[in-house]
Task: inverse folding
Protein backbone atom coordinates (compact mmCIF):
# COMPACT_ATOMS: atom_id res chain seq x y z
CA UNK A 1 0.00 0.00 0.00
CA UNK A 2 1.23 3.50 -0.88
CA UNK A 3 2.43 5.35 2.29
CA UNK A 4 0.12 8.32 1.57
CA UNK A 5 -2.92 6.04 1.33
CA UNK A 6 -1.83 4.25 4.49
CA UNK A 7 -1.49 7.61 6.28
CA UNK A 8 -4.96 8.64 5.08
CA UNK A 9 -6.52 5.40 6.27
CA UNK A 10 -4.74 5.51 9.62
CA UNK A 11 -5.77 9.12 10.26
CA UNK A 12 -9.12 9.14 8.55
CA UNK A 13 -11.15 10.26 11.58
CA UNK A 14 -9.04 13.32 12.54
CA UNK A 15 -8.76 14.34 8.87
CA UNK A 16 -12.55 14.24 8.42
CA UNK A 17 -13.03 16.36 11.53
CA UNK A 18 -10.36 18.88 10.54
CA UNK A 19 -12.13 19.29 7.18
CA UNK A 20 -15.48 19.62 8.98
CA UNK A 21 -14.21 22.38 11.28
CA UNK A 22 -12.49 24.20 8.41
CA UNK A 23 -15.69 24.07 6.34
CA UNK A 24 -18.10 25.02 9.15
CA UNK A 25 -16.05 27.77 10.79
CA UNK A 26 -16.53 30.48 8.09
CA UNK A 27 -20.25 29.61 7.82
CA UNK A 28 -20.73 29.97 11.58
CA UNK A 29 -19.56 33.59 11.54
CA UNK A 30 -17.74 33.17 14.86
CA UNK A 31 -14.53 35.07 15.51
CA UNK A 32 -11.24 33.25 15.95
CA UNK A 33 -10.85 34.81 19.42
CA UNK A 34 -14.22 33.47 20.55
CA UNK A 35 -13.45 30.01 19.19
CA UNK A 36 -10.02 30.08 20.87
CA UNK A 37 -11.50 31.08 24.23
CA UNK A 38 -14.16 28.39 24.05
CA UNK A 39 -11.71 25.69 22.98
CA UNK A 40 -9.33 26.58 25.83
CA UNK A 41 -12.21 26.44 28.34
CA UNK A 42 -13.29 23.03 27.09
CA UNK A 43 -9.74 21.76 26.82
CA UNK A 44 -9.19 22.56 30.48
CA UNK A 45 -12.60 21.17 31.44
CA UNK A 46 -12.37 17.83 29.62
CA UNK A 47 -8.71 16.82 29.21
CA UNK A 48 -8.35 15.19 32.63
CA UNK A 49 -11.36 12.95 32.01
CA UNK A 50 -10.08 11.87 28.60
CA UNK A 51 -6.59 11.23 29.94
CA UNK A 52 -8.13 8.72 32.35
CA UNK A 53 -8.92 6.51 29.34
CA UNK A 54 -5.29 5.97 28.34
CA UNK A 55 -4.23 3.37 30.91
CA UNK A 56 -6.91 0.72 30.16
CA UNK A 57 -6.07 1.03 26.43
CA UNK A 58 -2.47 0.28 27.38
CA UNK A 59 -3.64 -2.85 29.22
CA UNK A 60 -5.57 -3.99 26.13
CA UNK A 61 -8.98 -3.35 27.66
CA UNK A 62 -10.12 -0.90 25.00
CA UNK A 63 -12.04 2.26 25.75
CA UNK A 64 -13.14 2.22 29.38
CA UNK A 65 -16.85 3.06 29.33
CA UNK A 66 -16.67 2.33 33.05
CA UNK A 67 -15.27 5.82 33.75
CA UNK A 68 -18.91 6.66 34.49
CA UNK A 69 -18.35 4.86 37.82
CA UNK A 70 -15.52 7.22 38.68
CA UNK A 71 -17.66 10.19 37.68
CA UNK A 72 -20.40 9.04 40.06
CA UNK A 73 -17.87 8.69 42.90
CA UNK A 74 -16.71 12.26 42.25
CA UNK A 75 -20.29 13.50 42.35
CA UNK A 76 -20.89 11.83 45.74
CA UNK A 77 -17.84 13.70 47.07
CA UNK A 78 -19.20 16.96 45.69
CA UNK A 79 -22.65 16.40 47.24
CA UNK A 80 -21.06 15.78 50.65
CA UNK A 81 -18.82 18.86 50.63
CA UNK A 82 -21.76 20.99 49.50
CA UNK A 83 -23.75 19.69 52.46
CA UNK A 84 -20.89 20.38 54.87
CA UNK A 85 -20.32 23.86 53.45
CA UNK A 86 -16.63 23.45 52.66
CA UNK A 87 -15.51 26.18 50.29
CA UNK A 88 -12.82 26.84 47.70
CA UNK A 89 -9.76 24.74 46.98
CA UNK A 90 -9.94 22.89 50.34
CA UNK A 91 -13.49 21.88 49.40
CA UNK A 92 -12.36 20.65 46.00
CA UNK A 93 -9.50 18.64 47.49
CA UNK A 94 -11.76 17.26 50.22
CA UNK A 95 -14.26 16.12 47.58
CA UNK A 96 -11.39 14.32 45.82
CA UNK A 97 -10.24 12.77 49.09
CA UNK A 98 -13.71 11.51 50.03
CA UNK A 99 -14.46 10.12 46.60
CA UNK A 100 -11.12 8.32 46.18
CA UNK A 101 -12.03 5.22 48.27
CA UNK A 102 -15.44 5.07 46.55
CA UNK A 103 -13.72 5.23 43.14
CA UNK A 104 -11.18 2.56 44.17
CA UNK A 105 -13.99 0.26 45.28
CA UNK A 106 -16.01 0.90 42.11
CA UNK A 107 -12.88 0.40 39.98
CA UNK A 108 -12.10 -2.88 41.70
CA UNK A 109 -15.65 -4.08 41.15
CA UNK A 110 -15.50 -3.06 37.48
CA UNK A 111 -12.11 -4.72 37.05
CA UNK A 112 -13.36 -8.03 38.47
CA UNK A 113 -16.40 -7.95 36.17
CA UNK A 114 -14.32 -7.02 33.12
CA UNK A 115 -11.95 -9.90 33.85
CA UNK A 116 -14.93 -12.21 33.52
CA UNK A 117 -15.78 -10.68 30.15
CA UNK A 118 -12.41 -10.72 28.39
CA UNK A 119 -12.65 -9.62 24.77
CA UNK A 120 -15.96 -7.84 25.37
CA UNK A 121 -14.71 -5.20 27.82
CA UNK A 122 -16.21 -2.19 26.08
CA UNK A 123 -19.79 -3.35 25.88
CA UNK A 124 -19.53 -4.79 29.41
CA UNK A 125 -18.19 -1.45 30.66
CA UNK A 126 -21.07 0.34 29.00
CA UNK A 127 -23.61 -1.95 30.65
CA UNK A 128 -21.79 -1.68 33.97
CA UNK A 129 -22.23 2.08 33.78
CA UNK A 130 -26.00 1.68 33.37
CA UNK A 131 -26.13 -0.82 36.24
CA UNK A 132 -24.11 1.37 38.59
CA UNK A 133 -26.27 4.34 37.65
CA UNK A 134 -29.16 2.49 39.26
CA UNK A 135 -27.16 1.89 42.45
CA UNK A 136 -26.07 5.54 42.47
CA UNK A 137 -29.66 6.71 42.12
CA UNK A 138 -30.72 4.42 44.94
CA UNK A 139 -28.05 5.88 47.22
CA UNK A 140 -28.61 9.51 46.25
CA UNK A 141 -32.39 9.42 45.95
CA UNK A 142 -33.21 7.25 48.97
CA UNK A 143 -30.05 6.80 51.04
CA UNK A 144 -28.99 10.41 51.38
CA UNK A 145 -30.88 12.14 54.14
CA UNK A 146 -32.06 8.82 55.56
CA UNK A 147 -28.98 6.62 56.02
CA UNK A 148 -26.28 9.13 55.05
CA UNK A 149 -26.89 12.29 57.10
CA UNK A 150 -27.55 15.33 54.91
CA UNK A 151 -28.69 18.49 56.69
CA UNK A 152 -28.45 21.26 54.10
CA UNK A 153 -32.07 22.11 53.14
CA UNK A 154 -30.85 23.70 49.88
CA UNK A 155 -29.77 20.34 48.48
CA UNK A 156 -32.36 18.07 50.10
CA UNK A 157 -35.70 17.35 48.48
CA UNK A 158 -38.67 18.92 50.34
CA UNK A 159 -39.75 15.45 51.56
CA UNK A 160 -36.63 15.34 53.78
CA UNK A 161 -34.54 12.76 52.01
CA UNK A 162 -32.98 12.45 48.56
CA UNK A 163 -30.96 15.05 46.72
CA UNK A 164 -32.43 17.71 44.45
CA UNK A 165 -32.09 17.40 40.69
CA UNK A 166 -29.60 20.27 40.41
CA UNK A 167 -27.05 21.43 42.96
CA UNK A 168 -25.37 24.79 42.78
CA UNK A 169 -21.65 24.23 43.30
CA UNK A 170 -21.08 27.84 44.28
CA UNK A 171 -18.73 26.73 47.05
CA UNK A 172 -16.13 25.35 44.67
CA UNK A 173 -17.09 27.03 41.38
CA UNK A 174 -13.87 27.45 39.37
CA UNK A 175 -11.85 27.10 42.58
CA UNK A 176 -9.04 25.53 40.60
CA UNK A 177 -9.49 27.47 37.37
CA UNK A 178 -9.32 30.84 39.07
CA UNK A 179 -6.40 29.92 41.30
CA UNK A 180 -3.90 31.07 38.70
CA UNK A 181 -4.97 32.68 35.43
CA UNK A 182 -3.20 34.54 32.67
CA UNK A 183 -4.68 36.46 29.78
CA UNK A 184 -3.08 36.17 26.38
CA UNK A 185 -4.63 38.28 23.58
CA UNK A 186 -8.01 38.30 25.30
CA UNK A 187 -8.02 34.57 25.93
CA UNK A 188 -8.25 33.57 29.60
CA UNK A 189 -5.93 30.68 30.37
CA UNK A 190 -6.50 28.85 33.68
CA UNK A 191 -2.87 28.03 34.38
CA UNK A 192 -3.45 26.02 37.58
CA UNK A 193 -5.78 23.54 35.87
CA UNK A 194 -3.39 23.26 32.94
CA UNK A 195 -0.57 22.50 35.38
CA UNK A 196 -2.67 19.72 36.93
CA UNK A 197 -3.31 18.30 33.44
CA UNK A 198 0.41 18.56 32.63
CA UNK A 199 1.20 16.71 35.87
CA UNK A 200 -1.15 13.91 34.83
CA UNK A 201 0.52 13.75 31.39
CA UNK A 202 3.90 13.39 33.11
CA UNK A 203 2.41 10.72 35.35
CA UNK A 204 1.20 8.77 32.27
CA UNK A 205 4.64 9.04 30.62
CA UNK A 206 6.38 7.96 33.85
CA UNK A 207 3.87 5.19 34.48
CA UNK A 208 4.53 3.62 31.07
CA UNK A 209 8.17 3.16 32.06
CA UNK A 210 7.49 1.52 35.41
CA UNK A 211 7.39 -2.23 35.95
CA UNK A 212 3.60 -2.11 36.29
CA UNK A 213 3.31 -0.02 33.11
CA UNK A 214 5.47 -2.49 31.18
CA UNK A 215 3.37 -5.35 32.56
CA UNK A 216 0.23 -3.61 31.34
CA UNK A 217 1.69 -3.19 27.87
CA UNK A 218 2.63 -6.86 27.78
CA UNK A 219 -0.87 -7.83 28.93
CA UNK A 220 -2.27 -5.52 26.26
CA UNK A 221 -0.20 -7.14 23.53
CA UNK A 222 -0.86 -10.76 24.43
CA UNK A 223 -2.40 -12.06 27.63
CA UNK A 224 -1.06 -15.60 27.18
CA UNK A 225 2.51 -14.39 26.62
CA UNK A 226 2.17 -12.14 29.67
CA UNK A 227 0.86 -14.99 31.79
CA UNK A 228 3.65 -17.33 30.70
CA UNK A 229 6.24 -14.68 31.58
CA UNK A 230 4.95 -14.59 35.16
CA UNK A 231 2.67 -11.54 35.07
CA UNK A 232 -0.53 -11.75 37.10
CA UNK A 233 -2.77 -10.76 34.18
CA UNK A 234 -6.03 -10.45 36.14
CA UNK A 235 -4.46 -8.30 38.87
CA UNK A 236 -2.76 -6.04 36.32
CA UNK A 237 -6.04 -5.52 34.47
CA UNK A 238 -7.89 -4.70 37.72
CA UNK A 239 -5.20 -2.16 38.68
CA UNK A 240 -5.49 -0.47 35.28
CA UNK A 241 -9.26 -0.09 35.73
CA UNK A 242 -8.85 1.17 39.31
CA UNK A 243 -6.36 3.85 38.17
CA UNK A 244 -8.66 4.84 35.31
CA UNK A 245 -11.71 5.06 37.62
CA UNK A 246 -9.88 7.16 40.22
CA UNK A 247 -8.57 9.52 37.53
CA UNK A 248 -12.07 9.77 36.03
CA UNK A 249 -13.38 10.66 39.48
CA UNK A 250 -10.90 13.56 39.73
CA UNK A 251 -11.64 14.46 36.11
CA UNK A 252 -15.36 14.73 36.84
CA UNK A 253 -14.68 16.95 39.87
CA UNK A 254 -12.47 19.23 37.75
CA UNK A 255 -15.16 19.22 35.03
CA UNK A 256 -17.94 20.16 37.46
CA UNK A 257 -15.97 22.84 39.30
CA UNK A 258 -15.57 24.50 35.91
CA UNK A 259 -19.28 24.24 35.08
CA UNK A 260 -20.42 25.23 38.60
CA UNK A 261 -23.62 23.15 38.62
CA UNK A 262 -24.17 19.47 39.31
CA UNK A 263 -27.07 17.72 37.61
CA UNK A 264 -27.32 15.06 40.29
CA UNK A 265 -28.93 12.35 38.19
CA UNK A 266 -27.44 12.87 34.74
CA UNK A 267 -24.14 14.76 34.89
CA UNK A 268 -22.26 11.47 34.63
CA UNK A 269 -24.42 9.76 32.01
CA UNK A 270 -22.71 11.09 28.89
CA UNK A 271 -19.22 11.31 30.37
CA UNK A 272 -17.97 8.02 28.92
CA UNK A 273 -19.47 8.55 25.48
CA UNK A 274 -18.16 12.10 25.06
CA UNK A 275 -14.69 11.32 26.42
CA UNK A 276 -14.34 8.25 24.20
CA UNK A 277 -15.66 10.09 21.15
CA UNK A 278 -13.11 12.88 21.72
CA UNK A 279 -10.25 10.41 22.09
CA UNK A 280 -11.25 8.55 18.92
CA UNK A 281 -11.57 11.80 16.97
CA UNK A 282 -8.00 12.55 18.06
CA UNK A 283 -6.87 9.52 16.08
CA UNK A 284 -6.77 6.91 18.83
CA UNK A 285 -7.98 3.38 18.29
CA UNK A 286 -9.20 0.67 20.62
CA UNK A 287 -5.66 -0.68 20.90
CA UNK A 288 -3.56 2.48 20.71
CA UNK A 289 -4.04 5.83 22.36
CA UNK A 290 -1.47 8.49 23.19
CA UNK A 291 -1.26 11.95 24.74
CA UNK A 292 -1.40 13.83 21.37
CA UNK A 293 -4.61 11.92 20.56
CA UNK A 294 -6.16 13.33 23.74
CA UNK A 295 -5.42 16.96 23.01
CA UNK A 296 -6.08 16.83 19.26
CA UNK A 297 -9.33 15.00 20.06
CA UNK A 298 -10.53 17.59 22.59
CA UNK A 299 -9.70 20.48 20.26
CA UNK A 300 -11.42 18.92 17.21
CA UNK A 301 -14.42 17.47 19.04
CA UNK A 302 -15.21 20.69 20.86
CA UNK A 303 -14.48 22.88 17.86
CA UNK A 304 -17.20 20.92 16.05
CA UNK A 305 -19.46 21.34 19.10
CA UNK A 306 -18.95 25.10 19.17
CA UNK A 307 -19.12 25.71 15.45
CA UNK A 308 -21.90 23.31 14.40
CA UNK A 309 -24.93 24.94 16.14
CA UNK A 310 -24.05 28.34 14.67
CA UNK A 311 -23.30 26.86 11.26
CA UNK A 312 -26.64 25.01 11.43
CA UNK A 313 -28.42 28.25 12.28
CA UNK A 314 -26.72 30.18 9.48
CA UNK A 315 -27.40 27.43 6.94
CA UNK A 316 -31.04 26.57 7.61
CA UNK A 317 -32.03 29.04 10.32
CA UNK A 318 -32.25 26.42 13.09
CA UNK A 319 -29.63 26.14 15.81
CA UNK A 320 -31.23 22.87 16.90
CA UNK A 321 -29.80 21.17 13.84
CA UNK A 322 -26.37 21.78 15.31
CA UNK A 323 -27.55 20.38 18.63
CA UNK A 324 -28.73 17.18 16.95
CA UNK A 325 -25.47 17.16 15.05
CA UNK A 326 -23.56 17.07 18.35
CA UNK A 327 -25.24 13.87 19.48
CA UNK A 328 -24.99 12.39 16.00
CA UNK A 329 -21.28 13.23 15.94
CA UNK A 330 -20.48 11.70 19.34
CA UNK A 331 -22.26 8.42 18.78
CA UNK A 332 -21.49 8.34 15.08
CA UNK A 333 -17.78 8.78 15.55
CA UNK A 334 -17.63 5.92 18.06
CA UNK A 335 -19.50 3.63 15.67
CA UNK A 336 -17.38 4.80 12.73
CA UNK A 337 -14.09 4.34 14.61
CA UNK A 338 -15.06 0.92 15.87
CA UNK A 339 -16.15 -0.15 12.39
CA UNK A 340 -12.93 1.24 10.93
CA UNK A 341 -10.95 -0.61 13.57
CA UNK A 342 -12.79 -3.87 12.82
CA UNK A 343 -12.24 -3.38 9.08
CA UNK A 344 -8.53 -2.66 9.63
CA UNK A 345 -8.18 -5.75 11.81
CA UNK A 346 -9.87 -7.84 9.12
CA UNK A 347 -7.56 -6.46 6.42
CA UNK A 348 -4.52 -7.08 8.66
CA UNK A 349 -5.65 -10.63 9.39
CA UNK A 350 -6.28 -11.22 5.68
CA UNK A 351 -2.82 -9.89 4.83
CA UNK A 352 -1.26 -12.09 7.53
CA UNK A 353 -3.16 -15.07 6.18
CA UNK A 354 -1.93 -14.33 2.63
CA UNK A 355 1.64 -13.92 3.84
CA UNK A 356 1.43 -17.18 5.75
CA UNK A 357 0.07 -18.94 2.66
CA UNK A 358 2.90 -17.58 0.49
CA UNK A 359 5.48 -18.66 3.07
CA UNK A 360 3.84 -22.05 3.36
CA UNK A 361 3.82 -22.41 -0.41
CA UNK A 362 7.48 -21.37 -0.59
CA UNK A 363 8.45 -23.85 2.09
CA UNK A 364 6.61 -26.60 0.21
CA UNK A 365 8.05 -25.75 -3.19
CA UNK A 366 11.54 -24.77 -1.94
CA UNK A 367 13.05 -28.20 -1.18
CA UNK A 368 11.71 -29.66 -4.48
CA UNK A 369 13.54 -26.99 -6.47
CA UNK A 370 16.61 -27.81 -4.39
CA UNK A 371 16.33 -31.46 -5.32
CA UNK A 372 15.98 -30.66 -9.07
CA UNK A 373 18.97 -28.31 -8.90
CA UNK A 374 21.01 -30.92 -7.07
CA UNK B 1 10.27 -6.49 61.89
CA UNK B 2 8.73 -8.70 59.25
CA UNK B 3 7.91 -7.41 55.80
CA UNK B 4 4.15 -7.79 56.29
CA UNK B 5 4.16 -5.88 59.58
CA UNK B 6 6.24 -3.08 58.05
CA UNK B 7 3.93 -2.89 55.04
CA UNK B 8 0.84 -2.73 57.24
CA UNK B 9 2.45 -0.05 59.40
CA UNK B 10 3.18 2.06 56.31
CA UNK B 11 -0.37 1.58 55.05
CA UNK B 12 -1.81 2.47 58.45
CA UNK B 13 0.40 5.55 58.62
CA UNK B 14 -0.73 6.64 55.18
CA UNK B 15 -4.35 6.15 56.15
CA UNK B 16 -3.91 8.28 59.28
CA UNK B 17 -2.14 10.92 57.17
CA UNK B 18 -5.06 11.00 54.74
CA UNK B 19 -7.58 11.32 57.59
CA UNK B 20 -5.55 14.18 59.08
CA UNK B 21 -5.43 15.82 55.64
CA UNK B 22 -9.21 15.48 55.42
CA UNK B 23 -9.66 17.10 58.85
CA UNK B 24 -7.28 19.91 57.87
CA UNK B 25 -9.11 20.53 54.58
CA UNK B 26 -12.45 20.48 56.36
CA UNK B 27 -11.40 22.99 59.00
CA UNK B 28 -9.71 25.35 56.53
CA UNK B 29 -12.49 25.21 53.96
CA UNK B 30 -15.51 25.08 56.27
CA UNK B 31 -17.66 28.17 56.09
CA UNK B 32 -17.99 30.35 59.21
CA UNK B 33 -20.71 32.85 59.94
CA UNK B 34 -19.34 36.20 61.07
CA UNK B 35 -21.61 38.82 62.64
CA UNK B 36 -20.52 42.42 63.07
CA UNK B 37 -22.64 44.15 65.73
CA UNK B 38 -22.60 47.89 66.27
CA UNK B 39 -24.33 47.84 69.65
CA UNK B 40 -23.61 49.44 72.99
CA UNK B 41 -21.43 47.49 75.42
CA UNK B 42 -22.54 47.45 79.03
CA UNK B 43 -20.88 46.15 82.18
CA UNK B 44 -22.37 43.29 84.20
CA UNK B 45 -24.23 45.76 86.45
CA UNK B 46 -25.75 47.51 83.40
CA UNK B 47 -23.42 50.53 83.36
CA UNK B 48 -22.84 51.68 79.76
CA UNK B 49 -19.18 51.18 78.76
CA UNK B 50 -18.90 51.99 75.07
CA UNK B 51 -21.80 53.65 73.30
CA UNK B 52 -22.70 52.78 69.71
CA UNK B 53 -22.92 56.23 68.20
CA UNK B 54 -20.98 56.03 64.97
CA UNK B 55 -21.32 54.20 61.68
CA UNK B 56 -18.52 52.08 60.27
CA UNK B 57 -17.70 50.61 56.89
CA UNK B 58 -16.80 46.92 57.35
CA UNK B 59 -14.59 44.52 55.42
CA UNK B 60 -14.02 40.88 56.30
CA UNK B 61 -11.09 39.14 54.59
CA UNK B 62 -10.93 41.98 52.07
CA UNK B 63 -14.59 41.63 51.13
CA UNK B 64 -16.81 44.63 51.81
CA UNK B 65 -19.77 43.87 54.07
CA UNK B 66 -21.19 47.41 53.91
CA UNK B 67 -21.98 50.11 56.42
CA UNK B 68 -22.98 49.04 59.90
CA UNK B 69 -24.97 51.82 61.55
CA UNK B 70 -25.55 52.16 65.34
CA UNK B 71 -27.69 49.33 66.76
CA UNK B 72 -27.44 47.40 63.51
CA UNK B 73 -25.77 44.14 62.49
CA UNK B 74 -23.96 42.97 59.36
CA UNK B 75 -23.49 39.31 58.55
CA UNK B 76 -21.39 37.29 56.14
CA UNK B 77 -20.18 33.73 55.49
CA UNK B 78 -16.44 33.20 55.10
CA UNK B 79 -14.37 30.04 54.71
CA UNK B 80 -11.33 29.31 56.82
CA UNK B 81 -10.06 29.48 60.38
CA UNK B 82 -8.29 32.84 60.27
CA UNK B 83 -10.12 36.06 59.43
CA UNK B 84 -9.41 39.76 59.35
CA UNK B 85 -11.93 42.46 60.15
CA UNK B 86 -11.31 46.04 59.04
CA UNK B 87 -13.47 48.96 60.19
CA UNK B 88 -13.44 52.48 58.78
CA UNK B 89 -15.13 55.20 60.84
CA UNK B 90 -17.77 57.32 59.05
CA UNK B 91 -19.02 60.80 59.99
CA UNK B 92 -22.63 62.02 60.13
CA UNK B 93 -22.76 62.24 56.31
CA UNK B 94 -21.32 58.72 56.12
CA UNK B 95 -18.05 59.98 54.67
CA UNK B 96 -14.83 58.30 55.85
CA UNK B 97 -13.05 60.16 58.67
CA UNK B 98 -9.79 58.35 57.91
CA UNK B 99 -9.73 56.32 61.17
CA UNK B 100 -9.22 52.62 60.50
CA UNK B 101 -9.23 49.67 62.88
CA UNK B 102 -8.09 46.20 61.93
CA UNK B 103 -7.99 42.91 63.87
CA UNK B 104 -7.23 39.28 63.08
CA UNK B 105 -9.02 36.41 64.75
CA UNK B 106 -9.49 32.64 64.66
CA UNK B 107 -12.79 30.75 64.61
CA UNK B 108 -13.07 27.00 65.20
CA UNK B 109 -15.18 24.70 63.00
CA UNK B 110 -18.90 24.76 63.73
CA UNK B 111 -18.63 28.12 65.46
CA UNK B 112 -19.58 31.62 64.42
CA UNK B 113 -17.87 34.87 65.39
CA UNK B 114 -19.60 37.92 66.88
CA UNK B 115 -17.54 41.09 66.52
CA UNK B 116 -18.61 44.02 68.65
CA UNK B 117 -17.64 47.27 66.92
CA UNK B 118 -17.57 49.72 69.89
CA UNK B 119 -15.50 47.27 71.98
CA UNK B 120 -13.05 46.70 69.11
CA UNK B 121 -12.67 50.44 68.48
CA UNK B 122 -12.02 51.04 72.20
CA UNK B 123 -9.48 48.20 72.34
CA UNK B 124 -11.40 46.05 74.83
CA UNK B 125 -9.67 42.69 74.39
CA UNK B 126 -12.25 40.81 76.44
CA UNK B 127 -15.42 42.03 74.82
CA UNK B 128 -14.70 42.71 71.13
CA UNK B 129 -14.95 39.06 70.01
CA UNK B 130 -17.29 36.26 71.04
CA UNK B 131 -17.13 32.81 69.51
CA UNK B 132 -20.35 30.82 69.70
CA UNK B 133 -22.51 28.44 67.74
CA UNK B 134 -24.57 30.65 65.40
CA UNK B 135 -28.11 31.24 66.62
CA UNK B 136 -30.81 29.85 64.33
CA UNK B 137 -32.52 32.49 62.18
CA UNK B 138 -35.94 33.56 63.41
Result:
Amino acid sequence: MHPAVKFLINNMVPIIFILLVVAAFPISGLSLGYLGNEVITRLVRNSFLILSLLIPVMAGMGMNFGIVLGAMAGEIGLILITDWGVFGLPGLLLAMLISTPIAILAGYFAGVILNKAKGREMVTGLMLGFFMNGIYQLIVLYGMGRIIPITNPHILLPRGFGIRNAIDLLAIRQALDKLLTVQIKGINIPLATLLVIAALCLFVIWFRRTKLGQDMRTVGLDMEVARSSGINVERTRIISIIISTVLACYGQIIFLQNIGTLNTYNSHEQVGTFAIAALLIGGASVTKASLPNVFLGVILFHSVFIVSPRAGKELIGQAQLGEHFRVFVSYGVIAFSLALYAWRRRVEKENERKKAMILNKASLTGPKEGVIKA
Amino acid sequence: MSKIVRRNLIRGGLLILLILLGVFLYSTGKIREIFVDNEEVTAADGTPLYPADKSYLVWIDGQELGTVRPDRRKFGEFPGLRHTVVLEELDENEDPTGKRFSREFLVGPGLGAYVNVPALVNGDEERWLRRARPEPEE
